[in-house]
Amino acid sequence: MLSWHSSKFSSAALIFTLTVPSLVPSVAFAQTQGATPATASAKPAPLAESLTGMAKAEYEAGRVLYADGDYAYAILKFQRAYELSKDPRLLWNVAVCEKNLRRYSRMLSTIRRYEKEAADMLTESEREQAREIIKTVEAFVSELDLRVNEEGAEVYVDDELVGTTPLAEPLVVNVGNRRIRVTKPGFKEAVVTREITGGGTVVIQVELEEEVHRGRLIVTAGANDDITIDGKPVGRGRWEGWLPSGGHSLRVTAEGMQAYQSEVLIQDDQVRRIDVTLNPLPKSSTTTTVLWIVGGAAVAAGAVVGGVYLFKPSAPEPTPGTINPHLVQLSLGGRR
């Protein structure tokens, strides 16, 4: 026999014994201590005898783990045996392990399943025992009525996924300090911590906020300086506002001043400050420049013309000859 005695139950009405004969090969089924031998003899064969194959092997492994105090792995074995055999008596074993791990909300759910699925196998005394257990465990849990403004959000209690909104029914959570986390892609994560006292209903409203990737930019320039962001005029002298995260083009201009232009990186939820001081344009005369260019062209033209005359050979003097008219004009190429 395995008994459950908890110091948390102060009155005699709340101190009770859970008999778990399915963990003991000689007893077939969970039964009230006051059950008569005739009633017990009408029960199905013990699990150790009725189970076969892998279901029996998993059940026996669960018993060993339970005896070693490894309740978490014992649950896995009993659950596997239940999946293979569909024998609801194994749910009682699972419930006892969950009680030892203080997983009261899970235990409550399992006992309710046990009460429903094993209804045809229970005596009235055993049904009453199950009801008393449920009533007692309900003092150690609360219903959590979680209301979320977005559908399709995942709900976690103490980092364990328990459902997706909208929830079909209120959650059952253990007493103590519970952490409720709600997440959905494209929205900021919402986390609520609440102290659960047990024995009632707790209503929590969660408003998910859409996630926006943006940062704040503050630009300070001269009083008459025009500020342009991404090609769009946004202000003069000073501008402050939100921009999507990423790169942006900042340009500051003013008459008679050199323009300022820069790429600005905006990061999520950060503030970027930029102070801009424009410099005057360099002093220069366009007239002088034009004259210089024109004068330069004139000088160059003169040089070309002069060069032509400078390097053009002069006509040679006539050379005396013996043939009439006794004068010969030679070519520049010399004699032929």
CATH superfamily placement of the largest domain: Tetratricopeptide repeat domain
Derived from helix and strand composition plus strand pairing, the structural class reads alpha+beta
Main sheet? 4 strands, antiparallel
Number of helices: 8
Q: What is the third-level CATH name, the topology of the largest domain?
A: Serine Threonine Protein Phosphatase 5, Tetratricopeptide repeat
- Low-confidence stretches are 1-41, 285-311, 328-336
**How many domains is the backbone divided into?**
3
Distance between the termini: 143 Å
In spatial order, strands of the major sheet run: 3-2-5-6
What spatial form do the alpha-carbon principal axes imply?
A: rod-shaped
In CATH terms, what is the architecture of the largest domain? Alpha Horseshoe
Q: What's the CATH first level of the largest domain?
A: Mainly Alpha
What is the helix/strand order? HHHHHHHEEEEEEEEEEEEEEHEE
Mean pLDDT: 78
What features would you describe in this structure?
It contains eight helices and 16 strands. The N and C termini lie far apart (143 Å). The strands form five sheets. The protein has a four-stranded antiparallel beta sheet, with no helix packed on it. It has a four-stranded antiparallel beta sheet with strand order 10-9-12-13, with no helix packed on it. Helix 3 runs antiparallel to helix 4 (71-85) and helix 4 (71-85) packs antiparallel against helix 5 (89-100). It is rod-shaped and about 110 Å long. Strand 15 (319-320) and strand 16 form a beta hairpin. With 336 residues, the protein is α+β, with helices and mostly antiparallel strands.
